[in-house]
Amino acid sequence: MRALLALLLLSTAASAQPTDNPVAMATGAHLKAVCSRSDDRASRIICLSWLNGASQGNGWFTPRDPTLTPAHCPPSRNFDLAASRSLILAWLDKHPADLARPSIEVFSLALAAKWPCQKR
Fold this sequence. Notes:
The protein has one domain: 10k-s Protein, Hypothetical Protein A, Chain A (Orthogonal Bundle). The protein contains five helices and no strands. The chain has helices spanning 2-16, 28-35, 41-57, 81-94, 103-114.
């Protein structure tokens, strides 16, 4: 009986912990896991959809800390999501410590490095 109770408690505790779901796109590691799978159609759609949303939000808000989420100023509003994907994956290859950062920070840092905004 005690063994059964212990097993139930362990299974309840395990199910209460959040799972690491890359599709949530919460971290740079998730971005890399999903966006680097170019052979998987579903992963490509998830990656490009996330990038589209993040790109469309650029400039719509003032970040609390511009050092974490700097603005980027691409040369055109007709952004190329595949190019953004490549930039971010290259950034993560060069900055592996950023795998633990929130995905929006990785997105902002990578694109701001490529397309910094001019100071006014």
